[in-house]
Design goal:
By secondary structure, this protein is of the alpha+beta class. It is built from two helices and nine strands. A hairpin with a 2-residue loop joins β8 and β9. The longest helix is centred in the N-terminal third of the chain and has 19 residues.
Length: about 140
C-alpha cells in the first residue's frame, strides 16, 4: 500500500512540474507585420526638416567640471546635442548669447540646438563657471 501511495505521489509531483514548465512560444513580429503610414503628397515639408541637413555633434557635460569638447568649429545648419553624464542631479546649460532659455539636463538626456547663423557662441553650466564651451559657426 505504501508503494502505491509513493508511486501516486511521484506521478503527481511529475505532472505538477511538467505543467509549470511550459515552452515560451511568444514570437516577435517581423517588420512586414507593422503597417507603414502612407505619405501625404499634399503636405508641406516642415521648416525644421530642411534645417537638419547639417552634421550632428555631441558635447558631453561630465563629472568634476569637465565639458568635452570645450571648443568646437561647426558649419551653419549643424546641430549640437548637449548630453549630461552626471548620474545624480542635473546640470543647467546657459546660453550666454540668449539663443535659448536655460536648459536643465538630466543624466543621459540630451538637448539639441541647430545653429543657423554664423558667429561665436558661449555656453556655461550654471554655478560651475569652469564648465564652459565656445562654438564657432562658419
Amino acid at each position: 500500500m505504501k508503494g502505491k501511495i509513493l508511486i501516486l505521489l511521484v506521478m503527481f509531483v511529475f505532472l505538477l512540474a511538467s505543467g509549470c514548465a511550459e515552452e515560451d512560444n511568444t514570437s516577435v513580429p517581423d517588420d512586414s507585420d507593422i503597417p507603414v503610414p502612407e505619405a501625404d503628397e499634399d503636405a508641406q515639408p516642415e521648416e525644421s526638416a530642411s534645417l537638419k541637413s547639417g552634421k550632428e555633434h555631441i558635447i558631453r557635460l561630465e563629472n568634476y567640471g569637465v565639458i568635452r569638447p570645450a571648443e568646437l568649429n561647426i558649419s551653419k545648419g549643424d546641430t549640437i546635442s548637449w548630453r549630461s553624464d552626471k548620474k545624480q542631479g542635473n546640470y543647467v546649460l546657459v546660453s550666454e548669447d540668449g539663443l535659448f532659455p536655460d536648459e536643465k539636463l538630466s543624466y543621459k538626456v540630451s538637448f539639441t540646438y541647430t545653429f543657423n547663423e554664423a558667429g561665436t557662441y558661449s555656453f556655461i553650466v550654471k554655478d560651475i563657471p569652469e564648465m564652459n564651451a565656445t562654438i564657432r559657426v562658419n
